[in-house]
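Submission checklist for the structure archive. All mandatory fields must be present; incomplete records are returned to the submitter.

[x] Identifier: XRE family transcriptional regulator
[x] Organism: Shewanella psychromarinicola
[x] Residue count: 109
[x] Sequence attached
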Amino acid sequence: MRDFDDEYKLHNSPIPERLKLARKKVGISQKELGVRIGMDESSASGRMNHYEKGRHVPDIQTLKKMANELRVPLNYFFCEDDQSAELAVLIALLSDEEKKSLIATLNNT
């Protein structure tokens, strides 16, 4: 039996919305994403739909595969607001040197 905390986490997770937004931005179907990350073609669409609807939560390995296919960093899926999600994507695109520079700049403000 689930307790309140488990129910709250499942229904308030940012993962479903982030997953759907990233998939649509790349322009692929649920089935195509599922197949690309190694799901059986016959069940890929249904499984991805369950993830996007929040009925099931993908394990961390599955999330990593999705992140790679959707060209977003893993932490993108856990961002609770759009600005944080956008920042996560932009920061992931920076070189190590650019990240160090950004950190230094932010620490000095």
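[x] Structure attached
Curator remark: Helices lie at 4-11, 15-26, 30-36, 44-53, 60-70, 82-93, 96-107. Residues 33 and 69 are 7 Å apart (CA to CA).
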